[in-house]
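cron nightly-structures :: item 1 of 1
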Amino acid sequence: MQEAYTLIGVYSTRPIRLGTIPVIALAASIALIYLFRITEPAYNPPYVLFILNFLLITISNLVVAAVSAQSFLKYGALNTLLLSNALIISGLVSFISGWIWSVSVAQAISIQDIGLLTSAGLQVMSAMVTFAATSTSEFSKRAITLAASYILTMGFIVFLTLLVVLNLTPVFFTETAGSTVTRDVFLGMSVFFLALSSSLFLWQYKQSRSESLYWYSMALILFALSFVSLSFQMQSGDIYNWIGRIAQYLAGFYFLVALVRLSAGMKRTMGISEKWAEAFTADRKQLAVLFANMLNGFCYNKIVTDDAGRAVDFVMLEVNDAFERITGLPKDQVVGKTFTEAFPRVKEEHPDFFEMLGDVALSEKPVMLETYFIPLKKWLTISAYSPRKGYFVLLFEDVTERRHLQQKLEEYTKNLERLVEERTRQLKDAERLAAIGQTAGMVGHDIRNPLQAITNELYIAKESVAAAPEHEDTRELFESISLIQEQTDYISKIVSDLQDFARPLNPQHSDVDLSELITRVILTIDIPNKIELSIDVKGTPKLKTDPTFIRRVLTNLANNAIQAMPDGGKLELTAYQKENTINITLSDTGKGIPEEIKPKIFTPLVTTKAKGQGLGLAVVKRLVGALGGTITFESELGRGTKFFIELPLSAPEKPKFE
């Protein structure tokens, strides 16, 4: 709803020009000073504030006020009258506060804050008049009107000064505590008024492309930044005070730039006051064209109230083509009709609707929301604002399709993690098999044949040495042959792990007595005497699985556990049935697995041992997955490791390859 944001004066893409650089720099300075808590007092000699305020704020404001006054006298534009009085107040209170500063800082700040809030209020009134396209008025005696407004303005300034000097106003600033709550409220309101004014003027700049409006809006933003900085002020001349002053001085300069830039895009035959009035005149034709061609539905309405002043309905005064397209209601059947006539059941279906829109029209507070509009059975984003009291503009966009897509996306997201995990496993398998499958098979075949020959020869040599007369040389030779046999077995294990990891796994399921199988596996493992073995697998039922796979899994895990306890420890192996699964736990009291290795413990070529290829646990995970089971672990450095295997009692329909 870009048009909706535009209409309520909120711009997401302000023009990038030179004028924005000081604004950004000052805002960043305030943020950095606050972040780093810079509280040292700054250089603040007497009368400097008075001189700078007079030269850089008072003169510039009064010059622009004079041009605005001339524009009002020629065209009777109410917004220029309000601008003139706003600038006179800001110019004169800056002059007076600078003059009083050397006598009483607290009184100077009180005059400045009250006066500038009043000026900001007049600025926002002027901006709203411009925005509502009601700039022109029918003042028959413009000179008298201007003089009367100036008398009221000057009277206000004099009255304010007397009240402050006589200490009849609340305390705004103390040298010990800085800004009071009263001052913070006044500064906050000023920032709000100036930000709103600037937004509305920037919207008008978007329509007219008058550079004067742009520079004038930037000046208001600088004034707003100055109030933000002054709200942090703790001393009469601290860094926040100087940042605020600099922002106001730049704002005064920007006011003069706004006058200078009147020549850009304006008729050369027009005088400066005429150009100024034209810059601040809303173009009704542009507004009408915008509404007619915007993609969002538009409806201009007048509120209908009861005797108590509560909104009970509203009359639709104008709609655009998009309104007809979204609602399906022809223009000639809704213009001039009430909303309840167009949608008879809307009060029952949306009981808070009229109260909300009535508040927009009567309090002139904009609102934005997204809701399901029952009469149309559509999701709508709705924006409403009031150009003047009693009237409001309703902008809406059909976002039903987006909401349906969002719901589908939420449903899909719930299963996204599972889908990603499944696809990742498939990709890993494909990459693994493609990269090393062929090589592993070839290498395993080429190594295993000579390895078997070596094993056979070692066996024969070992038997021959054993039959020879016992001698010291014979014993040494026997030990050497045994060492060679041990290393040959280790090479054979590497070849087996490599082939098991690379080749497709096709388990051959049969009925297996797990208790008997585990006992046989443990007997084939060389367990040192310094390691205590504990086995508890009695009472486990038979299961449908591949005994070779189970043997390889338990052998690998047991050997790893033994290697993790070089100085001895305890090796425990338990198995029990849980519903339709068999749970096997193998634990040791060894060194444990480092935290940085845990996420990669089942990854190929990852190992915690100085000797090893890091394929053992990767093979174990594949073997368990091929049997339809899962394997997890717990480990703590210095306390040991536990591996938990969960296997189904019957053969799975589809193996879970990991």
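cron nightly-structures :: done
The longest strand covers residues 569-578.
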